[in-house]
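This part of the workshop introduces the protein records we will be handling. Each record describes a single protein and holds just a pair of labelled lines. Instead of coordinates, the fold is spelled out as a row of discrete tokens. To make this concrete, we reproduce a full record directly below:
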Amino acid sequence: DISIETNSTPQDEIKLIAENEKDTLVLVAEELLFIESADNYSEVVFWKENKLQKVLLRSSLSRLEEQIKHSFIARCHRSYIINLRQVTDISGNAQGYKLQLQNWGVALPVARRYTDLVKEYFKK
């Protein structure tokens, strides 16, 4: 008997369920780059097999945020949930930080109300 084990365990996974309760996306938490809200949709940007993938889910960012239980994945702006482990550089100041992500060309904004959260995380 051969059993195939994946390296991910349920606590390493994120399961995102869209508002219709049918569309789901399961991914390894480490692979997530960020989730961006786009009107009634959220665009999930992540790595899969060394390729950047984007999936649109019909769901609000708040709804998806409630489904994520990882401390390193956090809301940083009204339009973004970000994987803090993918951050390679922080620029700006308390008036507005920008987070540079691994292999992603555009720095993502941190809203002022989330600056403490981001600062706390990177103090570690």
User: Anything to note?
Assistant: Residues 76 and 117 are 8 Å apart (CA to CA). The mean pLDDT is 89.
